[in-house]
Specification:
The protein contains no helices and ten strands. By secondary structure, the protein is mainly beta. It starts with 9 loop residues before the first strand and ends with a strand.
């Protein structure tokens, strides 16, 4: 098997049998990460269940990139947002650089069922 960029952050499982009479293989699962390719965390909502008319924080991070020259943005329904954003980083970690971002919005009919991209 030869991994490609599309396999970045893919979970693989390896089983090794030590002899033909062994009935219990040694098993290990790992996540394939290519150095320098960023990986994104899942979105985190605060509060976890949005309430109409109340503030909502959408949080996401990107890590394992190899340059301080890195920028992130939030896009709502095709338009880049400039307000309500708090970015932290980039800061150095053992696996490269990491950046965290929070988008603060008010849950209203204006953003109901709108696509939000990080």
């Amino acid at each position: 098997i030869k991994p490609t960029r599309g396999d970045h952050y893919t979970e693989f499982r390896i089983e090794v049998y030590h002899s033909t009479i062994s009935t219990k293989p040694m098993t290990q699962t790992f996540i394939l990460k290519f150095p320098g390719l960023p990986s994104f965390s899942p979105f985190y909502l605060d509060p976890p269940h949005p309430v109409y008319g109340q503030p909502l924080a959408l949080k996401c991070s990107v890590e394992s990139f190899d340059s301080e020259e890195f920028a992130v943005s939030w896009v709502l329904d095709g338009e880049e947002l400039t307000k309500g954003i708090q970015n932290r980083g980039p800061f150095h970690t053992p696996t490269g650089y990491k950046m965290e971002s929070v988008l603060n919005i008010m849950v209203t009919a204006r953003n109901f069922e709108k696509e939000i991209i990080f």
